[in-house]
Design a protein that fits this description.
The chain is α/β, with parallel strands linked by helices and 235 residues long. The protein has six helices and ten strands.
């Protein structure tokens, strides 16, 4: 596998109440194509911050984020927007579905942003909705769905544009155990089928069973970086 994302000596400092708060301290990591990994740690450890930097939603205070060798800092606002549209799928804890749109329309929406014609992608949307098990709900709106169903819509929406990288922020936080395992099994299958890299941030211990690499953050520092071995242990 080749390297997709390079996090090169990245720090992030926020100004809070007139004082500086360092969310990340000199982080250096590489993430491969097709990864299935997670940043773990308590609230405030820097997990969401590092996902936002990788997705080009924020900029580091120092250091560099590179995607396929290209520094994100060298992209202007329009180029960053294009980078996100074309390469990154986002899955949020709160789903962030468009409430007035149906399942079909929510999944279709990213393609319309990329100037696709609905008639050209209709079958692709329907096929992906079917893949996540929501064909019977395809005409329903988010208020008519369960939490697990909303998360599956969010997964389909993230994958519809065939992204190289999927960033999932606490994707199981609002789900019960049964739905959490179902969502994780689905994302693992889609990781294998679509070859997209999945990077989570979570404090849900259930995720550990599925990921192949775990990076623990604490107070903005990397505490460990472990890879799963054939016996299932992280070392």
């Amino acid at each position: 596998m080749s390297n997709m994302v390079t996090i090169d000596h990245v720090s992030k400092v926020y100004r809070v109440g007139g004082q500086d708060f360092t969310a990340l301290h000199d982080i250096s990591l590489e993430i491969d194509e097709g990864a299935f990994m997670s940043f773990v740690g308590p609230s405030g450890s820097g997990k969401t911050t590092i996902l936002n930097l990788m997705g080009g939603l924020d900029q580091p205070t120092s250091g560099e984020i590179l995607f396929q060798g290209r520094p994100l800092s060298q992209m202007d606002r329009d180029e960053l927007a294009a980078f996100r549209r074309e390469n990154v799928g986002f899955i949020f804890q709160s789903y962030n579905l468009l409430p007035v749109y149906t399942v079909y329309e929510n999944v279709l929406f990213p393609l319309l942003l990329n100037d696709a014609k609905e008639s050209d992608v209709r079958e692709k949307v329907r096929s992906l909705v079917d893949l996540v098990g929501l064909t019977p709900e395809i005409k329903k709106k988010p208020t008519e769905l369960s939490g697990g169903q909303c998360q599956r819509v969010a997964i389909a929406r993230a994958l519809i544009k065939d992204p190289a990288l999927v960033l999932a922020d606490e994707p199981t936080a609002n789900l019960d155990a049964e739905n959490s395992y179902h969502i994780l099994e689905l994302m693992l299958k889609l990781n294998r089928d679509f070859k997209a890299a999945f990077v989570f941030c979570t404090h849900d211990e259930k995720v550990t069973k599925y990921i192949r690499r775990e990076v623990r953050l604490d107070d903005g520092y990397v505490q460990w970086d472990k890879t799963k071995q054939p016996d299932g242990k992280l070392i």
